[in-house]
Amino acid sequence: MTATVGPATQQVVRLVVMYDALSDIDAFERHYSDVPIPLAKQCPGLHRYTRSHEPAVVIGEPCHMVVMLDWDDMAALESTLKSEIGRRTADDAAANLARYATFRGMLPQLEEV
Questions:
Q1: What tens digit of pLDDT does each residue of 17-27 get?
Q2: C-alpha–C-alpha distance, residues 17 and 58, integer Å
Q3: pLDDT tens digit sequence for 33-54
Q4: Integer Cα distance of 50 and 78 in angstroms
């Protein structure tokens, strides 16, 4: 018996950011709530913003927080990154969040199957 998989119904581009090794958890959380969240919520084309504190580790090392931001496609994400809000968000991460945490990001292009 062979399973049949239909065509992808929707493509999503997701920015995933993992925050590790916080030097000052309280300062990080205050800043994150006051600046990156309000900025990101203004990003054009962003249709979903989720985060998880201290996610359960299945494989690998634990982290403090995982943030996921979704756009319909790569063009929408690129448009956001070029916008004033996108630049302000990136500048804040480099200038301020980097003081409190190490972090890494990835851009999986998700396809619903």
A1: 999 988 999 99
A2: 17
A3: 999 999 999 998 999 999 999 9
A4: 19
For the record, the structure tokens of 21 come out as 């090794």
The answer to whether 54 and 62 are in contact (CB under 8 A) is yes
Provide the residue ranges of all domains of the chain, joining segments of one domain with +: 11-111
Give the CA distances from residue 92 to residues 6, 37, 44, 75, in Å, rounded to whole numbers and listed in that order.
Answer: 42, 11, 17, 23
Q: Are strands 102-106 and 65-71 parallel, antiparallel or unpaired?
A: unpaired
pLDDT at 9: 54
Q: Is the pLDDT of residue 75 over 50?
A: yes
DSSP H stretches of helix in 24-64: 25-34, 36-40
Task: Match 């998880």 to its residue by tokens.
Answer: 52
Instruction: Please say whether the beta carbons of 49 and 69 come within 8 A.
Output: yes
Say if domain 11-111 classifies as CATH 3.30.70.100.
yes
Whole-angstrom Cα distance, residue 34 to residue 9? 36
